[in-house]
Amino acid sequence: MKISFYFDEKSPQEIDLPVKTLNSKQRLKHSFKVFGYFLGAAIVSVFIPILHFILVPTLIILAFIFSIKKFKQIGSLDISQFKCPNCEHFFNDKTIPIHASNTTLSVYCFNCRKNILFVINETSLNAATTTN
Ligand SMILES: [Zn+2]
After folding, report:
1. What would the pLDDT profile of 38-87 be if each residue is shown by its tens digit?
2. Whole-prediction pTM
3. Distance from the alpha carbon of residue 66 to the mean position of ligand 1, in angstroms
4. Ligand 1 geometric centre to CA of 19 (Å)
């Protein structure tokens, strides 16, 4: 999918990067998985004396927060084949989550310490979603 990116306040450039979109069934599945991890940790922490007064409610609250956040993720952008325009450094094995509320993704290059801004066109993302 064509994605424009901004770097060093220059005009946007276009690049073709793989975008993986998730349908609502997959999003629900991932969301329940995250909820299950936190709920499991909460159940285990019941057996820790004194600390369970803090851990159990905190983990249950976090289970809701992170599962809702995971459900809002509509896809992911694979930038493993993307080279930093400044230092030519590869972002090895990296995917960035795409959320419905925010289709502008910021990536920090640790090699040259600069930000790269990816802007995903919502209409093409919706088109990609319906084909899956
Ligand atoms: Zn760089």
Report:
1. 999 999 999 999 999 999 999 999 999 999 999 999 989 888 888 888 89
2. 0.74
3. 30
4. 21
User: What is the whole-number distance in angstroms between the Cα of residue 124 and the centre of ligand 1?
Assistant: 27
Q: Which residue shows structure tokens 């999003």?
A: 27
Tell how far CA 111 is from the center of its chain.
21
Distance (Å, whole) CA 15 – CA 48: 51
